[in-house]
Amino acid sequence: MSDCLRDKQLLLVLDNCEHLIQACAELAERLLRVAPGLRIVATSREALHITGERVYQVPPLRVPEAAAANRMTLAELAQYESVQLFVDRAASVQSNLAVTSANAEAVAQICYDLDGIPLAIELAAARVNVLPIEQIAARLDDRFRLLTGGSRTALPRQQTLLALIDWSYDWLSPAEQALFNRLSVFRGGCALETMETVCACEQVQYAEILRVLTQLVEKSLIRMDERSSEPRYLMLETMRRYGQDKLEASGEADITYRLHSEWFLRLAEEAEAHWSGAAQQAWLARLELEHDNLRMALEWSLNHEPGIGLRLAAALGPFWDVRGYLTEGLETLECALAGAGDEQKVWQAKALHLAGKLAARQGDYQRAQELETRGLELNRELGHLAGVAHSLDSLGQLAWFQSDYATAWRYYWASLSIQRELADKRGIATALNSLGQLARAQDDYAAARRLYQESLSLSQEIADPRGMAFSLNGLGDIV
Prior knowledge:
The chain is mostly helical. Helices cover 64% and strands 4% of the residues. The protein contains 25 helices and five strands. The strands form two sheets. Strands 3-5-4 form a three-stranded antiparallel β-sheet. A two-stranded parallel sheet has the order 1-2. β4 (223-225) and β5 (232-234) form a beta hairpin.
């Protein structure tokens, strides 16, 4: 063959090299050495790794954000390759099918949920003769059972989505399979440091994680996202769902999810320790980046390790408050409280206080009053003075919201007294700010100014930007 090609100017295509990668690499290198006019295009899930090779990644088709579909015109939606492919294949099954304002969101949801994977979109489109587009979108949680029935003339691995991924997975080494399975517990990707802690196991030791990860990236099963401050490693959602099934079958799901939950509990509690001070914004951003992983950790731990779930929910309360995840936070905290045992009273008291704050933020004062009162009683039972002070401050705020100024004064002064006893400058600043708000509400501007200024001074001393913002806002209101 090399003699035949020696003097030729031609393009040779080697398709689907991955199952014969070594042989294809050797063949390509030998041919290029003897035939200088030869150019080779090799398609494979991984590079051949030969001299002179240039690698071109073939990304998934562009997909619309499903949540934004209702704000797009039909013409804008039709610009996405994934939508074009879905409509083209669906029309071959149902000739009168078209994207309309009624089904546009469902089409976008299908393309988004299937990660722009061409075969998956084709298989979904083939279902339009038996299911409305909206039902196809709703059933993608069971995508491996739904997306079958490809072309009879296609290779067997291309006739169902499951067969396609099975074929790719089966070519992985045991170490690659083990890491791939464990990576499926991360929703939204993860950094290398997190992966090394959560995914190390008998098949893939801590020191081998980077090497095996590199192999998975080269095989296009894991993507590296460099948009954040440190690289993150992501799986397409379809691949993640497949990996979850494999992890369950391996018998290692519980230990992996436990390690995942424990890691993100440590992260949330570390963030909580930096809640006041100059690092607050950086920690807020990090929790936002990991929000999907935190949700995954809560989902698993609340069902399997309620103690971890309660601690994690309690640590995330301030994050939910500041970022406006009020309904999500309140529902999660109440779920965590429902599963708490008597040995977790400290965390219960904290969770009750945080749930009360979120209920108050939503205007449900009756629910907030009930939660804060339970938290106050539990803190008193535990002798936890800081918790008592926080509950008193929140109860004072609830009384103020309902124009019961006398009760509000009583709660606020009691909270301030405890905070001074504890010498907690942040707590003192919070109580002074609360009293300033109450004085302003009663038109006692001189007292309000004095209280706000004292609160501001303490917040500046401890570099608490949120406390400073509250005090400055109050002072601005009485100028």
